[in-house]
Design a protein that fits this description.
Radius of gyration: 24 Å
Strand order of the largest sheet: 4-3-2-1-13-14
Shape: globular
CATH architecture of the largest domain: 4-Layer Sandwich
GO molecular function, one term: hydrolase activity
Structural class: alpha/beta
Distance between the termini: 61 Å
InterPro entries: 5'-Nucleotdase_C, 5'-Nucleotdase_C_sf, 5'-Nucleotdase_CS, 5_nucleotidase/apyrase, Calcineurin-like_PHP, Metallo-depent_PP-like
Keywords: Hydrolase, Nucleotide-binding, Signal
Family: Belongs to the 5'-nucleotidase family.
Pfam family, one: 5_nucleotid_C
Number of domains: 2
Length: 518
């Protein structure tokens, strides 16, 4: 007997093979391609095979399509599309990703209200969890085999999320909760699968820490410290993993439907596991699922009409032609985003980030599409009052993003392994500062001026940050909730669109406030 465990994770609303930079693209990813892979595996399964499918979180947020649906759902009721799509593929279980909570509990409940599969949330407590979850685990009885699936979500959600979106929910350690449930499930089932929207803070081969152990990514500990797990499905980090750790098969299928994770477990006549293997099934060469395409096409057309609405004309160069140069020296686009944040929050200093190397920036004519493909997260803003020493510490963290290798400035290992973390480097406006990259990490900020004068350690400054950074995420421990003096409900895409609508003669220029010594 074989059990084949298929998984998608971090689809982020990329349904058709299109990244929304234009209406006519045909990329190698998308949930509708993953759907074809899943149906192909099912159709080709032998009689002695059980095929399971798990949707592992971050499904309803993350693309211009999900943004459109969120902004129009009360009028158009389009968010039931998520339930309809998933129902068509008949998942055996799903878990909640951290980005599911970006739009709040009621939106999650409304989006999944017509689902015909269980959403599992073993490590999330509180009365409100009943609105969005069907329990901690499910047990499937198929072909004489009992299979338990335990659902877990990274406990780090409250560290990023606006508390207003979380109701009375409490997020507990996935490791601690798994230790409670897995032994019980081993008594109830022949095979125990853990579906975890979280990743790994350690190297899978050596066990060496590859990021600070904060509790955000407890996958490695699950495989080392919880006896009885027979397979682990992971996500959250957008990594591509198909491996065995401590003898336990584990997968992580990237993001946007690029791959489908597959774990195959073989059992003998006594229902004992004799072998296991892992694989990532590439979706690139598979066709779009025609049935699901018919469900999506009309919404996609509405999204494209919305995205192509013109907002404003700008003067100057707002494109991001060289992402590394933009991070090293600032860039007209990044400076404009900071200026918008400063205007909205009524402060003189702001920081923003270039989320990845695919951010296009703004051409002379800016559309809704340009905004949503250049600022890709629904971040809200916060203002913190920090000391000069706090701000310097934040800049030192930024300066550590770079290293010099063979006389070339590249991204340091800390920010590039196990995955690129472009989103954890910030560019600041409102201050003049210099990084000396020839100096050791922690000693690289050699100039930091505000309004033409050096900043003292005890000086108090108000800084506008996105919500993610304002709570210290990305190892920016100098920022924290207790230093926040103002928060705002509007998300950044809306703030940017409103600003562009309301301002004429917007001039974008290459800033001169960041200098690099190399």
């Amino acid at each position: 007997m074989k059990i084949r465990i298929l998984s998608t994770s971090d689809v982020h609303g990329y349904l058709l093979p299109n990244d929304f930079k234009s209406s006519a693209q045909n990329t190698g990813f998308g949930y509708l391609k993953a759907a074809s892979v899943i149906e192909k595996v099912r159709s080709e399964a032998d009689d002695d095979e059980i095929v399971l499918y798990i949707e592992n979180g971050d499904f309803i947020q993350g693309s211009p399509l999900t943004d459109f649906i969120y902004r129009t759902h009360q009028e158009k009721h389009l968010n039931t599309l998520f339930s309809q799509l998933a129902n068509a593929l008949h998942p055996d279980a799903a878990v909640l990703g951290n980005h599911e909570f970006n739009y709040g509990i009621d939106y999650i409940a409304d989006s999944w209200k017509t689902r015909d599969f269980p959403i599992l949330a073993a490590n999330i407590a509180g009365d409100d969890i009943r609105k969005i979850s069907d329990g901690p685990y499910t047990i499937i009885d198929s072909k004489g085999i009992k299979i338990a699936i335990l659902g877990l979500t990274t406990q780090f959600v409250p560290n990023w999320e606006d508390p207003r979106n979380l109701g009375d929910l409490q997020f507990n350690s996935a490791l601690k909760v798994a230790k409670q449930y897995v032994p019980k499930l081993k008594e109830l089932a022949d095979v125990v699968i853990v579906a975890y929207h979280g990743g790994f803070d350690s190297d899978l081969e050596t066990g060496e820490l590859i990021e600070n152990r904060t509790g955000e990514n407890e996958g490695y500990q699950l495989l080392q410290e919880v006896p009885g797990i027979d397979a682990l499905v992971t996500g959250h980090q957008h990594r591509e993993i198909a491996d065995k750790v401590n003898g336990i098969p584990t997968t992580q299928p990237g993001y946007r439907g690029k791959d489908v994770g597959e774990i195959t477990i073989e059992l003998d006549a006594n229902k004992q596991i004799t072998n296991a293997r892992t694989e990532l099934l590439s979706c690139e060469k598979h066709p779009i699922n025609n049935h699901l395409q018919a469900m999506v096409e009309s919404v996609q057309k509405e999204v494209n009409v919305w995205l192509d609405q013109p907002i404003a004309n700008i003067n100057g160069d707002g494109l991001v032609n060289n992402p590394m140069a933009a991070r090293l020296y600032g860039n007209g686009f990044l400076d404009l985003i900071n200026r918008i944040q400063m205007d909205y929050a009524n402060v003189d200093i702001a920081a923003t980030t270039l989320f990845n190397n695919d951010i296009p920036g703004f051409n002379d004519s800016v559309s809704v599409r340009d905004v949503l493909t250049s600022y890709i997260f629904p971040n809200t803003l916060a203002v913190e009052e920090v000391s000069g020493s706090d701000l310097k510490a934040a800049l030192e963290r930024c300066a550590s993003f770079f290293t010099i290798t063979d006389n070339q400035i590249v991204v340091s290992k800390e920010f590039s392994e196990p995955k690129m973390q472009y989103f954890n480097y910030d560019y600041y406006s409102g201050i003049d500062y210099t990084f000396d990259l020839t100096k050791p990490v922690g000693q690289r900020v050699v100039r930091m001026d505000y309004q033409g004068k050096p900043v003292s350690d005890s000086q108090k400054l108000k800084v506008c940050l996105n919500q993610y950074r304002s709570v210290g995420a990305g190892d920016y421990d100098m920022y924290s909730r207790d230093k926040i003096i103002a928060t705002f409900e509007d998300d950044m895409p809306k703030i940017i669109i409103d600003y562009l609508h309301n301002h004429q003669n917007i001039i974008v220029e290459q800033p001169q406030n960041l200098k690099i010594i190399k």
